[in-house]
């Protein structure tokens, strides 16, 4: 039988389909990993912002995690929105029972600017979950929260990535420069080497879900056995094309196009 690569996302929902669990599963599917999902919170949101949030009881989170891991292989996993201390505790303990790469997208605010986590929980995330990661993927505002200072240049991104690995004890850090002006540059530090990922900046405001999509793509490639620098390189290409071919949908920042790569291939034939 053909090898099946299984990727799990632990995250909140986006009923408008561009971010959260929905973005993660679409990305896993596009990249040919078998996608699985465990819900943390049900979020009433769309491209314009967050309307309401319902956190699932942590006992139910635990039950979902156990249901997946007692039955299915997990070759890589990611967490997105994990917005309460009890949920972080459950995930932290459950992580002791699995053995695969763990990518954390430290979701703190939605792209619309709406907060998805309070300050005390941000500290808890650092203490209890970051030391268990293989990779953390903060955007610039999240990086500033994690390192406690301004991060506005490429040099500062490098320094911040080092702090996240050496002081917060992440396995590796990918500081994303999507919020800077100029080219879209991301900086990976794996504890030994720096890797820079650079793409043109696409003139589009349809960036709802880019962070989720990027970390899900990294997770998919890791589930297939790629090295971390390779997985980030491939995922960067995937998210860049997803932004280039994004959809003008909704009244706010539209969603990215998770089947952009497929569309490029199809266009070559049509
Ligand atoms: N306009 C753009 N053109 C090209 N690449 C972009 C653009 N905006 C963001 N990116 C890239 O998309 C990826 C996600 O980065 P970003 O910093 O936007 O993450 P995020 O803030 O978590 O996502 P979001 O903006 O959805 O909240 C990074 O590789 C970043 O460089
Ligand atoms: C449930 C959920 N998780 C994460 C995000 C952040 O999305 P983005 O990738 O736009 O930062 C979101 N809006 N909703």
Automatic annotation (TrEMBL):
Key word Protein biosynthesis present: no
Q: Write out the GO biological process terms.
A: thiamine biosynthetic process
Q: Report the SUPFAM superfamilies cross-referenced here.
A: Ribokinase-like (SSF53613)
The UniProt keywords, alphabetically, are: ATP-binding, Kinase, Nucleotide-binding, Thiamine biosynthesis, Transferase
What GO annotations for molecular function exist for this entry? ATP binding; hydroxymethylpyrimidine kinase activity; phosphomethylpyrimidine kinase activity
What this protein catalyses is: 4-amino-5-hydroxymethyl-2-methylpyrimidine + ATP = 4-amino-2-methyl-5-(phosphooxymethyl)pyrimidine + ADP + H(+); 4-amino-2-methyl-5-(phosphooxymethyl)pyrimidine + ATP = 4-amino-2-methyl-5-(diphosphooxymethyl)pyrimidine + ADP
> If you read the UniProt record, what top EC class would you report for this enzyme, in one word?
transferase
Q: Which PANTHER family match?
A: HYDROXYMETHYLPYRIMIDINE_PHOSPHOMETHYLPYRIMIDINE KINASE THI20-RELATED, PHOSPHOMETHYLPYRIMIDINE KINASE
| NCBIfam families assigned | HMP-P_kinase
Q: Which family does it belong to?
A: Belongs to the ThiD family.
Which protein are we looking at? Hydroxymethylpyrimidine/phosphomethylpyrimidine kinase
Source species taxonomy: Bacteria, Bacillati, Bacillota, Bacilli, Bacillales
Annotated gene: thiD
């Amino acid at each position: 039988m053909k090898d099946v690569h299984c990727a799990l996302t632990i995250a909140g929902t986006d009923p408008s389909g561009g971010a959260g669990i929905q973005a993660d599963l679409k990305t896993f599917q596009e990249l040919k990993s078998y996608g699985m999902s465990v819900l943390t919170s049900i979020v009433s949101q769309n491209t314009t912002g967050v309307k309401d949030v319902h956190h699932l009881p942590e006992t139910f989170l635990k039950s979902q995690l156990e249901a997946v891991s007692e039955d299915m292989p997990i070759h890589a996993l990611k967490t997105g929105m994990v917005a309460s201390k009890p949920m972080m505790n459950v995930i932290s303990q459950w992580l002791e029972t699995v053995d695969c790469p763990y990518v954390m997208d430290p979701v703190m605010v939605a792209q619309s600017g709406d907060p998805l986590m309070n300050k005390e929980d941000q500290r808890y995330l650092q203490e209890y979950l970051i030391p268990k990661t293989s990779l953390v993927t903060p955007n610039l505002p999240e990086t500033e929260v994690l390192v406690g200072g301004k991060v506005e240049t490429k040099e500062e991104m490098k320094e911040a990535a080092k702090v996240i690995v050496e002081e917060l004890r992440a396995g590796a850090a990918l500081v994303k420069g999507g919020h800077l002006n100029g080219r879209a540059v991301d900086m990976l530090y794996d504890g030994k080497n720096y890797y820079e990922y650079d793409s043109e900046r696409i003139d589009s405001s349809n960036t709802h879900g880019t962070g989720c999509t990027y970390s899900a793509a990294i997770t998919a490639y890791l589930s297939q056995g790629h090295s971390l620098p390779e997985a980030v390189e491939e995922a960067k290409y995937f998210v860049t094309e997803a932004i280039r071919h994004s959809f003008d949908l909704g009244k706010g920042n539209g969603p990215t196009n998770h089947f952009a790569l497929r569309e490029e291939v199809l266009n070559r034939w049509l």
